[in-house]
Amino acid sequence: AQSVTQLGSHVSVSEGALVLLRCNYSSSVPPYLFWYVQYPNQGLQLLLKYTSAATLVKGINGFEAEFKKSETSFHLTKPSAHMSDAAEYFCAVIRGQGNLIFGKGTKLSVKP
Amino acid sequence: DAGVTQSPTHLIKTRGQQVTLRCSPKSGHDTVSWYQQALGQGPQFIFQYYEEEERQRGNFPDRFSGHQFPNYSSELNVNALLLGDSALYLCASSPDEGTNYYNEQFFGPGTRLTVL
Fold first, then answer.
1. Dihedral angle sign, alpha carbons of residues A41, A45, A47, A48
2. What is the pLDDT of residue B110?
3. What is the pLDDT of residues B66-97, one digit of tens each?
4. In the predicted model, what is the mean pLDDT of chain A?
5. pLDDT of res. A101
6. What is d(CA A35, CA B75) in angstroms, rounded to the nearest whole number?
7. Which residues of B touch A99 (CB under 8 A)?
8. Residues of B in contact with A45 (CB under 8 A)
9. With 0-12 CB in 10 A as exposed, 13-18 as middle and 19+ as buried, what is A104?
10. pLDDT by residue (tens digit) across A40-95?
């Protein structure tokens, strides 16, 4: 069965520093993977998705993620953090017909 | 385009009561999914509706039921509320395009349910 594990419930970075949020997946079939962001008191917004077309996926707001089959990972990165990036980030995998399985989330704090 | 809308935004109920949450999908979307997000957790899939039928269901008891109307809007009903049902309930819509299971799901802002 497909699942994802997010390492680190809370990550803190300084403004301008590299952002790295970790996600490992478990899947018996080629997975479709997603990163979503949730700002306080809001729903989820799609950052990017991997659908096997390319291993390096670029998303919105300068985020990107690389699919590494050998490491079963799909980590999210951004070269330079901005204060507006402070939010909770969720990695997810598709199961069945559009059934998203989410990780527990990583809360990103950005220090000035 | 208003995107996915949900009502109400907040709701307070007592144990044993019943609740109905509503969702209007994004224009052009015909598939609606419901998720429960407990505090500090990721969303958990409840069920998905397509063509007014429940197409998939997650690991939730029968107290959770739903409905989809001909205009694709949807309701989530929860009977015999428990304290543990307190959560943010998210609705997501997507277009159904055959086997494109990776279609983006657009989420609404959610309904915050508190059970006392």
1. positive
2. 95
3. 999 999 999 999 999 999 999 999 999 988 76
4. 92
5. 92
6. 27
7. 33, 45, 48, 56, 58
8. 107
9. middle
10. 878 899 999 998 778 899 999 999 999 999 999 999 999 999 999 999 999 999 87
In single-letter form, the type of residue at position A54 comes to: A
Specify burial of residue B66 (Cβ count, 10 A radius: 0-12, 13-18, 19+).
buried
In angstroms, the CA A99 to CA B107 distance is 13
Cross-chain CB nearest to A102 (options B40, B43, B101): B43
3-state secondary structure of A60: helix
What residues form DSSP beta bridges with A34? A49, A92
| A46, two tokens | 């799609």
Could you tell me the sign of the dihedral formed by the alpha carbons of B11, B41, B62, B99, in that order? Answer: positive
- The DSSP bridge pattern shows strands A64-68 and A10-14 to be unpaired
CB spacing of A43 vs B108 below 8 angstroms: yes
Verify whether the Cβ–Cβ distance A32 to B101 is below 8 Å: yes
**pLDDT tops 80 at residue A18:** yes
Q: Indicate whether B21 pLDDT > 70.
A: yes
Number of H helices, E strands in chain B: 0, 11
Environment class of residue A51 by beta-carbon count within 10 Å: exposed (0-12), middle (13-18) or buried (19+)? Answer: middle
Residue A44: closest CA among B75, B37, B22: B37
List CB contacts (< 8 A) between B31 and chain A: 98
Q: Is B90 on the interface with A (CB under 8 A)?
A: yes
Amino acid code (one letter) for A41: N
How crowded is the C-beta side of A19, counted as CA atoms within 13 Å? 30
